[in-house]
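User: I'm writing a tutorial on reading structure tokens. Could you give me a worked example: one chain, its sequence, then its tokens, then a sentence or two explaining what the tokens reveal?
Assistant: Sure. Here is the example chain.
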Amino acid sequence: MSDNSSAPRRLVGSVGLLTAAAAALVLGLPGSAAAADGPDGGGGGGRAPYTCAGDQWPWGCLAECESSGDWHINTGNSFYGGLQFHQPTWEDFGGLAFARRADLASRDEQIEIAKKVQAAQGWGAWPECARRYGLTAKSRTHVVRSGETLGTIARKYRVQGGWRALYKANRTAIGRNPDRLSIGTKLRLP
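And here are its predicted structure tokens:
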């Protein structure tokens, strides 16, 4: 790995300013407050940055997690390449323009398709690995079922502040009347 001083510039080009700033803080990249607290920053209290973070963040890290960094892996499990594309996903997002399977495409081609997948499906397309690197938040949710009320849901999950706190956290999804829950509504549990 080369000098990480250009890592934030690569981040900005790959995933945007907000993600770059968040990644720098979480991962302790040079120039961030987290780096000053890390082992190289002298503070001693922070966690060490991911060694893969300077490798086209976050794609190098996701590939390290998904395939041990082998961009041309084909284990016969119907998932291919460094980011373990399922064949229908590879095809649906334009991968056939590069190769018939992801493992036959270059790293850059796989990343190009991965960016399209991420834009459409979010980081949840790589659930475990995205969670490992802090790309997805650990949040609790509940999908409303027939006969449920905010009160019963709040009690079930022991929501501090009860149904009022649950309503406040989900006012946009619920609407003006907290007594009218629609079946199938996804609620965020505070």
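What the tokens reveal: Confidence is low (pLDDT under 50) at residues 1-48. The chain has nine helices and four strands.
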